[in-house]
Amino acid sequence: MLSQNVLVRTGNILSLNEAKTKASQNPTDELIEILKIVLRDNKGSGENPVIIQGVEDNSLKDINREDVKITVKVFLSSPDVNLLKEAIDQVCNALNISAIESLVIAYSDKESPEELLTSLKHLWTGVEEYVKIGKLSSVGLSDISTNVFIDLFQWATIKPNIVQISLATCCVVPPALQAFTKENDVQLLTHNDPGQILPEEDLNELFNAETSLYWVTRYQIHLKCRGILSSKGYLVYVNKTII
Prior knowledge:
Blueprint: E1 2-9, H1 17-22, H2 27-41, E2 50-53, E3 68-76, H3 81-95, E4 100-106, H4 113-132, E5 136-142, H5 146-155, E6 162-166, H6 175-183, E7 187-191, H7 200-207, E8 211-223, E9 228-242
Parallel strand pairs: 1-2, 3-4, 4-5, 5-6, 6-7
Antiparallel strand pairs: 1-9, 3-8, 8-9
């Protein structure tokens, strides 16, 4: 069996009228609908990876870079630091930028707390490398236990200053986490992203083949002065089996 890597760049989904009517508040439903539109309307270019480009994102054109804030969330399927760095690099390439103001990593697997901490430490080496060269500013993690977050925080040279918790699985913020974030000036945020942003069954159906996910990256661009969301998009990187 042969396979090929495919990178889908949706561009600014706020400019897609069809997406506006179909997309729901559920991030998975939104992503699936967007991918259906982009895969239907665009052909791939390049060999490996094949790049499928949706609508071009021109939201940063003629705008002072200092007037916008770019936030990125990376959903990783493995603790491979090279995949994390690739996801960050691809967002920068797609938007023609050199730095991201805020990055949150979503990685969770069926690992013990000790194994998860080891995986996150491995990923965090890439985060620290990119902070040191000015590619990242605020950095954080999503959906990890209080103890794992505290252990990583205490181990890290460059401390995470964001932690996200799910509204679906956590009705009440753990008191220990609330106290720790307050004491250490960590921003505590909530989100409504599912544990698995793009389920395997939907992935296979979208690409009409056996497909494995490397990562999904979601970016948002806000105008600082007015707090307006001017752009939102996804990058999806997969490996597709060719019969």
